[in-house]
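Working notes for the structural subgroup meeting. M.R. asked for a predicted model of this chain before we commit to crystallization trials. I am recording the input and output together here so anyone reviewing the notebook later can reproduce the run.

Input as submitted:
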Amino acid sequence: MFFYGIDRYFILFVIPAMIFSLVMQGLVKGTYRKMSRIQNGRRLTGAEAAARVLSYYEINGVAIEGVRGTLSDHYDPRDKVIRLSQGVFAQSTVAAVGIACHEAGHAAQHAKGYVPVKLRNALLPVCNVGSALGLPLVFLGYITSFEPLVTVGLALFALITLFQLVTLPVEFNASRRALRVIDEQGLLEGEEYKGARSVLRAAAMTYVAALVVSIANLLRLLLRFRSRN
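Returned structure, recorded in C-alpha coordinate form:
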Protein backbone atom coordinates (compact mmCIF):
# COMPACT_ATOMS: atom_id res chain seq x y z
CA MET A 1 0.00 0.00 0.00
CA PHE A 2 2.89 2.38 0.65
CA PHE A 3 6.16 3.28 -1.08
CA TYR A 4 8.58 4.24 1.71
CA GLY A 5 5.78 5.60 3.87
CA ILE A 6 3.96 7.30 0.97
CA ASP A 7 0.49 6.24 -0.09
CA ARG A 8 1.08 4.58 -3.49
CA TYR A 9 -2.55 5.02 -4.54
CA PHE A 10 -2.17 8.75 -4.01
CA ILE A 11 0.84 8.72 -6.32
CA LEU A 12 -0.79 6.50 -8.93
CA PHE A 13 -4.21 8.14 -9.09
CA VAL A 14 -4.52 11.44 -7.25
CA ILE A 15 -1.32 13.20 -8.30
CA PRO A 16 -1.91 12.67 -12.08
CA ALA A 17 -5.52 13.83 -11.62
CA MET A 18 -4.36 16.95 -9.78
CA ILE A 19 -1.83 17.70 -12.52
CA PHE A 20 -4.59 17.33 -15.12
CA SER A 21 -6.76 19.72 -13.10
CA LEU A 22 -3.98 22.32 -12.90
CA VAL A 23 -3.41 22.07 -16.65
CA MET A 24 -7.11 22.63 -17.31
CA GLN A 25 -7.20 25.61 -14.96
CA GLY A 26 -4.23 27.07 -16.80
CA LEU A 27 -5.98 26.44 -20.12
CA VAL A 28 -9.16 28.27 -19.15
CA LYS A 29 -7.24 31.23 -17.72
CA GLY A 30 -5.05 31.46 -20.80
CA THR A 31 -7.98 31.20 -23.20
CA TYR A 32 -9.94 33.75 -21.18
CA ARG A 33 -7.04 36.22 -21.23
CA LYS A 34 -6.60 35.80 -24.97
CA MET A 35 -10.28 36.28 -25.81
CA SER A 36 -10.56 39.16 -23.33
CA ARG A 37 -8.21 41.17 -25.53
CA ILE A 38 -10.48 40.88 -28.56
CA GLN A 39 -13.40 43.30 -28.86
CA ASN A 40 -16.49 41.87 -30.55
CA GLY A 41 -17.63 43.56 -33.74
CA ARG A 42 -21.06 44.50 -32.39
CA ARG A 43 -19.60 46.02 -29.22
CA LEU A 44 -22.04 44.00 -27.10
CA THR A 45 -21.24 43.97 -23.40
CA GLY A 46 -21.58 40.84 -21.34
CA ALA A 47 -24.69 42.23 -19.66
CA GLU A 48 -26.31 43.00 -23.01
CA ALA A 49 -25.46 39.55 -24.36
CA ALA A 50 -26.97 37.85 -21.31
CA ALA A 51 -30.13 39.92 -21.78
CA ARG A 52 -30.35 38.72 -25.38
CA VAL A 53 -30.26 35.10 -24.22
CA LEU A 54 -33.00 35.74 -21.65
CA SER A 55 -35.12 37.39 -24.35
CA TYR A 56 -34.52 34.47 -26.75
CA TYR A 57 -35.85 32.00 -24.19
CA GLU A 58 -38.67 34.37 -23.14
CA ILE A 59 -37.47 34.56 -19.56
CA ASN A 60 -38.71 37.37 -17.33
CA GLY A 61 -37.86 38.31 -13.77
CA VAL A 62 -34.14 37.49 -13.93
CA ALA A 63 -31.82 40.36 -13.04
CA ILE A 64 -28.29 40.91 -14.36
CA GLU A 65 -25.76 42.57 -12.11
CA GLY A 66 -22.03 43.00 -11.71
CA VAL A 67 -19.95 41.29 -9.06
CA ARG A 68 -16.34 41.65 -8.02
CA GLY A 69 -13.69 39.14 -8.97
CA THR A 70 -12.30 37.38 -12.02
CA LEU A 71 -14.20 34.44 -13.50
CA SER A 72 -16.64 34.72 -10.59
CA ASP A 73 -19.62 34.66 -12.94
CA HIS A 74 -22.61 32.57 -11.89
CA TYR A 75 -26.38 32.32 -11.91
CA ASP A 76 -28.13 32.41 -8.54
CA PRO A 77 -31.47 30.57 -8.92
CA ARG A 78 -32.62 31.53 -5.42
CA ASP A 79 -32.50 35.26 -6.13
CA LYS A 80 -32.92 34.84 -9.88
CA VAL A 81 -29.84 36.92 -10.61
CA ILE A 82 -27.10 36.49 -13.19
CA ARG A 83 -23.95 37.85 -11.57
CA LEU A 84 -21.18 38.79 -13.97
CA SER A 85 -17.59 39.57 -13.02
CA GLN A 86 -15.82 42.84 -13.70
CA GLY A 87 -14.21 41.51 -16.85
CA VAL A 88 -17.58 40.42 -18.26
CA PHE A 89 -20.45 42.65 -17.11
CA ALA A 90 -19.55 45.93 -18.85
CA GLN A 91 -16.90 44.63 -21.26
CA SER A 92 -17.51 44.08 -24.96
CA THR A 93 -14.97 41.34 -25.54
CA VAL A 94 -15.44 37.96 -27.16
CA ALA A 95 -14.84 36.27 -23.80
CA ALA A 96 -17.40 38.48 -22.06
CA VAL A 97 -20.15 37.55 -24.51
CA GLY A 98 -19.41 33.84 -24.31
CA ILE A 99 -19.30 33.70 -20.52
CA ALA A 100 -22.34 35.93 -20.02
CA CYS A 101 -24.41 33.88 -22.45
CA HIS A 102 -23.33 30.70 -20.67
CA GLU A 103 -24.62 32.00 -17.33
CA ALA A 104 -27.85 33.07 -19.00
CA GLY A 105 -28.00 29.51 -20.33
CA HIS A 106 -28.16 28.34 -16.71
CA ALA A 107 -31.08 30.70 -16.12
CA ALA A 108 -32.80 29.14 -19.14
CA GLN A 109 -32.25 25.66 -17.70
CA HIS A 110 -34.04 26.59 -14.50
CA ALA A 111 -36.83 28.37 -16.33
CA LYS A 112 -37.42 25.42 -18.66
CA GLY A 113 -37.18 22.75 -15.96
CA TYR A 114 -34.04 21.05 -17.28
CA VAL A 115 -33.99 17.68 -15.47
CA PRO A 116 -30.23 17.42 -14.69
CA VAL A 117 -30.45 20.79 -12.93
CA LYS A 118 -33.26 19.49 -10.74
CA LEU A 119 -31.22 16.37 -9.96
CA ARG A 120 -28.13 18.41 -9.09
CA ASN A 121 -30.15 20.69 -6.81
CA ALA A 122 -31.64 17.64 -5.07
CA LEU A 123 -28.16 16.20 -4.49
CA LEU A 124 -26.64 19.45 -3.24
CA PRO A 125 -27.75 19.29 0.45
CA VAL A 126 -26.61 15.68 0.80
CA CYS A 127 -23.33 16.48 -0.95
CA ASN A 128 -22.67 19.30 1.49
CA VAL A 129 -22.93 16.73 4.28
CA GLY A 130 -20.69 14.35 2.35
CA SER A 131 -18.11 17.08 1.80
CA ALA A 132 -18.00 17.87 5.50
CA LEU A 133 -18.18 14.34 6.94
CA GLY A 134 -17.12 11.87 4.24
CA LEU A 135 -13.34 11.91 4.65
CA PRO A 136 -13.37 12.39 8.47
CA LEU A 137 -15.61 9.33 8.85
CA VAL A 138 -13.41 7.26 6.55
CA PHE A 139 -10.23 8.07 8.44
CA LEU A 140 -11.92 7.69 11.80
CA GLY A 141 -13.09 4.26 10.67
CA TYR A 142 -9.55 3.38 9.59
CA ILE A 143 -8.10 4.45 12.92
CA THR A 144 -10.69 2.61 15.00
CA SER A 145 -10.92 -0.37 12.59
CA PHE A 146 -14.69 0.10 12.57
CA GLU A 147 -15.68 -0.93 9.05
CA PRO A 148 -19.30 0.37 9.05
CA LEU A 149 -17.96 3.86 9.71
CA VAL A 150 -15.61 3.56 6.74
CA THR A 151 -18.47 2.36 4.56
CA VAL A 152 -20.67 5.31 5.51
CA GLY A 153 -17.81 7.72 4.88
CA LEU A 154 -17.11 6.23 1.47
CA ALA A 155 -20.79 6.39 0.55
CA LEU A 156 -20.92 10.07 1.50
CA PHE A 157 -17.75 10.77 -0.46
CA ALA A 158 -19.18 8.91 -3.46
CA LEU A 159 -22.13 11.31 -3.45
CA ILE A 160 -19.71 14.16 -4.14
CA THR A 161 -18.47 12.27 -7.20
CA LEU A 162 -22.05 11.69 -8.31
CA PHE A 163 -22.81 15.39 -7.91
CA GLN A 164 -19.84 16.32 -10.09
CA LEU A 165 -20.90 13.75 -12.67
CA VAL A 166 -24.38 15.27 -12.85
CA THR A 167 -22.81 18.72 -13.13
CA LEU A 168 -21.20 17.86 -16.47
CA PRO A 169 -24.37 17.71 -18.59
CA VAL A 170 -25.59 20.87 -16.84
CA GLU A 171 -22.48 22.81 -17.83
CA PHE A 172 -22.28 21.44 -21.37
CA ASN A 173 -25.97 22.13 -21.94
CA ALA A 174 -25.65 25.72 -20.71
CA SER A 175 -22.86 26.26 -23.22
CA ARG A 176 -24.91 24.72 -26.03
CA ARG A 177 -27.82 27.01 -25.20
CA ALA A 178 -25.47 29.99 -25.16
CA LEU A 179 -23.80 29.14 -28.46
CA ARG A 180 -27.17 28.53 -30.10
CA VAL A 181 -28.29 32.06 -29.29
CA ILE A 182 -24.92 33.56 -30.22
CA ASP A 183 -25.14 31.85 -33.60
CA GLU A 184 -28.83 32.36 -34.40
CA GLN A 185 -28.88 35.97 -33.21
CA GLY A 186 -25.56 36.80 -34.81
CA LEU A 187 -24.06 38.12 -31.58
CA LEU A 188 -20.67 36.85 -32.70
CA GLU A 189 -19.63 35.63 -36.11
CA GLY A 190 -16.72 33.81 -37.71
CA GLU A 191 -13.56 33.85 -35.62
CA GLU A 192 -15.34 35.65 -32.79
CA TYR A 193 -17.81 32.79 -32.47
CA LYS A 194 -14.98 30.27 -32.50
CA GLY A 195 -13.21 32.27 -29.81
CA ALA A 196 -16.26 32.26 -27.52
CA ARG A 197 -16.68 28.55 -28.12
CA SER A 198 -13.05 27.93 -27.14
CA VAL A 199 -13.57 29.83 -23.87
CA LEU A 200 -16.62 27.75 -23.00
CA ARG A 201 -14.94 24.48 -23.96
CA ALA A 202 -11.93 25.31 -21.78
CA ALA A 203 -14.21 26.22 -18.88
CA ALA A 204 -16.12 22.95 -19.29
CA MET A 205 -12.88 21.00 -19.02
CA THR A 206 -12.35 22.33 -15.50
CA TYR A 207 -15.53 20.48 -14.49
CA VAL A 208 -14.23 17.36 -16.19
CA ALA A 209 -11.00 17.77 -14.25
CA ALA A 210 -12.88 18.16 -10.96
CA LEU A 211 -14.71 14.90 -11.67
CA VAL A 212 -11.43 13.14 -12.49
CA VAL A 213 -9.89 14.30 -9.20
CA SER A 214 -12.96 13.15 -7.28
CA ILE A 215 -12.94 9.73 -8.96
CA ALA A 216 -9.20 9.40 -8.29
CA ASN A 217 -9.68 10.15 -4.60
CA LEU A 218 -12.62 7.78 -4.33
CA LEU A 219 -10.68 5.01 -6.08
CA ARG A 220 -7.72 5.62 -3.79
CA LEU A 221 -9.89 5.29 -0.67
CA LEU A 222 -11.64 2.17 -1.95
CA LEU A 223 -8.36 0.44 -2.80
CA ARG A 224 -6.79 1.36 0.50
CA PHE A 225 -9.80 -0.03 2.34
CA ARG A 226 -9.74 -3.23 0.28
CA SER A 227 -6.00 -3.75 0.71
CA ARG A 228 -6.33 -3.28 4.46
CA ASN A 229 -9.03 -5.94 4.61
